[in-house]
Amino acid sequence: MIAVEFLANMPRPDFFLIVQKEPTKDKDGRVQYRLSIATKPNVPLAPPMLLNPVFPETQEFRNFLFSKSTSQSISCIRYPTNQFLLVINSEIGIMGEIPIFKKKLSDARVDMLRQMITVAINTMADEKKRSSIRGSLVMSEVAPKRPLKNSSSKVDSSLNDEDMTRVKERRDSRDKVPSGDNFKEKRSVSSPDTRRRELTTSSVPASSFTITPLPPKDTEREESKRKSTGSDFKPKSPSKSRKSTVDHGSSNSQRDNILLHTALATADDG
Amino acid sequence: MPHLLGHSDKEMLKYVTHQIFGCDIPISLMRQVDSPSMISDKIIEFENRFHVTKYKFGVLYMKDGQTTENDMYSNQSVSKEYKHFLRFLGETISLDGWDKYNGGINSEKTKAVYTSYYGKELLFHVATLLPFDSEEAQQLERKKHVGNDVVVLVYKEGNTQFDPTAIKSQFNRE
């Protein structure tokens, strides 16, 4: 529909064949005409090309006139001018040239990114809630099966609680490493002006660590080690576990902030 | 290869059409050809649909010293050389009871120049033959036809230069 409207609004005529009578006559006494061509900008030219501009009044001149005008009219209709193309590919044609459009489009992109990121964060939070509920369910389901598998000598009636504490310890060990001294110091030291850059630089290790889970074999070994030296870990665990849950949430929120900042920084650059 | 996959003709047809056209064509659209001359007839019929046989062009008369389009459209008196050139282009016809291509001119009182050229019908909207209105400066009755033609022949007299941006159609008002 748009294309039809623009075709109707296309500036016409595009092509002019200018005929001018020459003062002198031919050898045979025939009238001579001088042909010249004038076009509007960006009009595609079509054969036959004008090589010798002066024609005597013959059938050859007639043929040239008619063939030129017919082929030119077809080419003008089938391959419209660049003005027509510029309007359709507005982002390609106009945005690069006019600064006002560039600014507005970049602002619109930043707004769109913000909206997208907020939506993504909300969905992530919902998923976390669901996953936490599922996890608790799974724990309750799995817990009674374990004593059957690990039917070792050290099984007690309080195995459920011990397992829970161990899982929390593992979480602690996960959170400790990325939120280590370097990361926290940087955040505390950084001034608000240089904050964004540091966040972008520090975002890479934190995200990579959180994404990659620990391999199962190592955890089993750790468990076995802890079982062997179980008494040392027990007193620390309850106090730290509460902290760890809080830290876990805070680290995730930090990560989200970092993501937002990085996205905005890239949007500003690009 | 198709013969390794199966013996059915449908599969062979699918393979060949995919090789030629680069996409799958449904077999329900294919027809069996009775005689080999039918193919060439069908192809000619198909290509004739894209063949444009009717053309319309504009003819402007530009006197010495005329620069604006209103001056060119409001020309009434013409020279002998211009009439000679119109006769060279084709025969002037009156559109009253005209059966052939009329180039979108509805009023029957006007005249135009018509020629046939290698099976094509050419009709020239000659500005000086179209109706003249003494009250209108823009001469919309002439501009309506000449200003919407893609190709315009300009018969120029004198040494003033022709400026293509001076000619504007009724849509292009800038």
Count interface residues per chain for the largest interface: A-B, 31 and 33 residues
Strand content of chain B: 15-25%
Shape of chain A: rod-shaped
Number of helices of chain B: 6
Q: How far apart are the first and last residues' alpha carbons of chain B, in Å?
A: 63 Å
Structural write-up:
The complex is a heterodimer of chains A (270) and B (174). Chain A is mainly alpha-helical and 270 residues long. Chain A has three domains: 2-88, no CATH class; 95-147; 158-270, no CATH class. Chain A has helices at 2-8, 59-78, 82-88, 90-93, 99-142, 146-149, 159-176, 181-189, 195-211, 216-228, 230-233, 236-269, and strands at 15-25, 31-39, 54-56. Chain A is rod-shaped, with a radius of gyration of 39 Å. The two termini of chain A are 33 Å apart. Chain B has two domains: 2-48, no CATH class; 54-166, 3-Layer(aba) Sandwich (Rossmann fold), CATH 3.40.50. Chain B has helices spanning 2-5, 9-21, 36-48, 69-73, 80-89, 140-146; strands spanning 54-62, 91-94, 111-117, 120-126, 151-156. Chain B starts with a helix and ends in an 18-residue tail after the last strand. Mean pLDDT of chain B is 85; it is low at 170-174. Classes of the chains: A mainly alpha (270), B alpha/beta (174). Chain A binds chain B through residues 8-21, 31, 33, 38-40, 57, 62-63, 65-66, 69-70, 72-74, 76-77, and chain B through 52, 55, 57-58, 81, 84-85, 88-89, 115, 117, 120, 122, 146-157, 162, 164-165, 167-169, 171-172.
